[in-house]
Amino acid sequence: SVNPPVRTVNKPLRLPLQDVYKIGGVGTVPVGKIETGILKPGMTLMFSPAKLTAEVKSIEMHHQGLDTALPGHNVGFNIKNVSVKNLHRGDVAGNAQQDPPSDVCSFEAQVIILNHPGKIKSGYSPVLDCHTAHVTCRFAELKEKLDRRTGRKLEDHPQILMSGDAATVRMVPAKPMCVESFFNYPPLGRFAARDLKQTVAVGVIKSVEKDQGSKSSHKTQVAK
């Protein structure tokens, strides 16, 4: 097997859930791929945006018990005292003791408009696919229009964006959502925006504004 890059192992745990099962005699078993960090039995997890904590009882991969699960592993893990109804695909699990995940009230992203038949203005609300989450997000503010090759700023606060344009936009999810800056957690910081049954834009998240209700209510900035 290929050893995961050191940088992803040393980061705090991020595990987007693909599904959650209730298994008779076992209990609640979330399933997903570890993107960064490690998962071990006995660890206390924080789930976002569900805002739940739970202890990991056991971990399985391909029906084999694991003592340590690493980035790239698709795992199922049994947790204590959480109903299957309270967790959903798109929730993200992290270590409650080490930079736990939290939902965001907004985020700034660099986007490229791929194919949209009209003009995109602030207020446009496509569905974003980011890790396993599938959430409508509003283009709340068109901040800068960029040269898509060099990233150089062409215009402040453009009125419209069209196919082929690159821009920095502030986005607001319509319901609680956990994403991260691409700089800190790449797999949780890139997305596709879908509308009209096609991908209208792709983007990377530059910074996130964490929900004030979450424990770590700070803005995570990244260098430009």
Description of the structure:
Residues 27-92 form the Translation elongation factor EFTu-like domain. The protein is mostly beta strands. It has two domains: 14-95, Translation factors (Elongation Factor Tu (Ef-tu), domain 3), CATH 2.40.30; 104-210, Translation factors (Elongation Factor Tu (Ef-tu), domain 3), CATH 2.40.30. 2% of the residues lie in helices and 47% in strands. The protein is built from one helix and 15 strands, in the order H-E-E-E-E-E-E-E-E-E-E-E-E-E-E-E. The strands form two sheets. A six-stranded antiparallel beta barrel has the order 1-2-6-4-3-7. The protein has a six-stranded antiparallel beta barrel with strand order 8-12-10-9-13-14. Mean pLDDT is 91; it is low at 214-224.
Strand content: over 45%
Strand order of the largest sheet: 1-2-6-4-3-7
Q: What's the structural domain tally?
A: 2
- CATH homolog superfamily of the largest domain: Translation factors
Instruction: Categorize the overall geometry.
Output: elongated
Count every helix, treating DSSP H or I runs of 4 or more residues as helices: 1
Give the integer mean of the pLDDT values: 91
**CATH third-tier fold name of the largest domain:** Elongation Factor Tu (Ef-tu), domain 3
SSE pattern: HEEEEEEEEEEEEEEE
Could you give the count of β-strands?
15
Instruction: Characterize the biggest β-sheet.
Output: 6 strands, antiparallel, barrel
Protein name: 42Sp50
Domain Translation elongation factor EFTu-like: 27-92
InterPro entries: EFTu-like_2, GTP-eEF1A_C, Transl_B-barrel_sf, Transl_elong_EF1A/Init_IF2_C
GO molecular function: GTP binding; translation elongation factor activity
